[in-house]
Amino acid sequence: MIPKEDLLQRIHLPNNKMKMRNKIFKFVLWSTGILMLIILLLNVVPYIFPSLVTTYSEDFNKQSFKSISIGEDKKSVESKLGKPLRISIDNVNQDSIKDAYWYSDNKYYFLYYEKILILFYQDKVSDIIKGIDMD
Known about the structure:
Elements: H1 4-11, H2 15-48, E1 54-56, H3 62-66, H4 74-81, E2 86-91, E3 97-102, E4 104-106, E5 113-121, E6 124-133
Antiparallel strand pairs: 1-4, 2-3, 3-5, 5-6
């Protein structure tokens, strides 16, 4: 007959192995939680503090941006907001060439940022785009 203590040791892991298993489980659990928190923060921060992850043009002002309206001409926009960070041209066909004035850019390129651009068609504002985006 096998003594009761030997039988229990065969059925259950020795105490040291059980402690090690618990430590590994806790480590994996905490690591996963911290990683999920970091990912959540990286996706939430731009919505709460967009200026932390966004570069704005030198003379950009949010109050002046709010005063821009559809139909306004380029000179008026430049006098209110200054020179854009970059200008791109959208050329779908000859009749719809649009200029895009970018007044913001992504600082880190892997995070969301506040995208601010103004589209011009025939030197008049045709669209105003402002929102959180990732390039």
